[in-house]
Automatic annotation (TrEMBL):
Upper taxonomic lineage: Eukaryota, Metazoa, Ecdysozoa, Arthropoda, Hexapoda
Source species of the chain: Timema monikensis
Domain named MOSC: residues: 1-155
Transmembrane regions: none
GO molecular function: catalytic activity; molybdenum ion binding; pyridoxal phosphate binding
UniProt xrefs under InterPro entries: MoCF_Sase_C, Pyrv_Knase-like_insert_dom_sf
Xref: Pfam families: MOSC
Record's protein name: MOSC domain-containing protein
Amino acid sequence: MRVMLIPSGSHDVAEYFEKGAYSDLSGYMLMAESSVADLASRVEGDKKYLSVSRFRGNFVVRGSSPYEEDTWDWVKIGDNTIFRNFKPCTRCILTTVDPETGVLDPNKEPLRTLGTYRQLAEAIRPVMGQSPILGINLGLYTPGIVKVGDAVYVNCD
C-alpha cells in the first residue's frame, strides 16, 4: 500500500477522516477469512471457487470470529496506521464473477446466499440500499505503512 494523502494540520475525528478518492465508495475494505469461510459453508454446490479474492478486499484478517469485523469501530494495522470503520460493505453483482476466469456464476452465487442472512437493518435500507453486507469500509485516519503479516488491533466503542 502506498499513502496517497497525508492530511495537513490536525482534525477532530468526529469531523474528518479520509475515505479515499476514485473508488466505488471507500479506498479501503477489510474482511475476515472466517467470514468468507462461513459464507462458503452455506453456499450449495462447488465451494472451492469461493475465496477472499472474490470480494476484493484491501485487508484480510485471520484469527477473528465470522463477521466480528462488523463490530470494530477503530482498526490499527502495524505500528501506527489507523482506520475508522464508517459503514458495512454492501456487496454487488461483481462478487458473482470469478476473478480468476472472469466467468459469471449462473446461480448468482455467493451473492444470492449472502442475501439470505446478511442484510442491513430494515430501518437503514432506504438510505444504504438493499444489498447484502460482507466486510467493512474504512476511512484512513492516521497514514502509515502496512505490511502483510502486521498485527491488527481493534477497538469497539
